[in-house]
Write a structure and sequence with these properties.
Length: 152
């Protein structure tokens, strides 16, 4: 692996961003245990390092080829000596639009359950959630969209 595994949970988001910057799905997957799982922002659910690597590799070499992923706010909750839950708000810039051009920046919160081992901290599971400012939930009225029910 081009980047060492984190020695503390708080280092994981920076390691994830460095792996992202390599544009290699195997570098992302190397941060996970062999039997880990990952749920992306659209609900695709991959189990196992190879199945985490493949879609990341495809995305990093296509619509995410010119992106930058920057970690922001980090919150860690230790559940013992060798288990931690970590959330990080990331900002993604440079995503390619389906028809060409560049999408605006977006934020996402990645939740990782991390386990410490002989080589450092690795994720056993991760879930990615897009941040939609000002919205409360999603509705499907023929098109899935963010909605806000609060009175104006």
């Amino acid at each position: 692996m081009a980047n060492r595994w984190p020695s503390e949970p708080e280092e994981f988001p920076a390691a994830f961003a460095r792996a992202w910057a390599t544009r290699e799905g195997t570098e992302i997957a190397a941060l996970f245990t062999e039997d880990a799982d990952f749920v992306n922002v659209t609900g695709l659910w991959w189990t196992g390092r190879d199945r985490i690597a493949a879609p990341h590799d495809y995305a990093l070499k296509s619509f995410f080829a010119e992106t930058e992923l920057r970690p922001g706010r980090i919150a860690v909750r230790r559940l013992g000596e060798d288990i931690a839950v970590l959330r990080c708000r990331f900002t993604l810039t440079g995503q390619r639009l389906p028809g060409g051009g560049t999408a605006g920046p977006r934020q996402t919160i990645l939740l990782f359950v991390l386990q410490d081992g002989p080589e450092g901290w690795r994720a056993v599971t991760a879930q990615n959630t897009d941040v939609v400012p000002g919205m409360e939930t999603h509705v499907n009225d023929g098109t899935l969209r963010a909605a806000d029910y609060r009175p104006r």
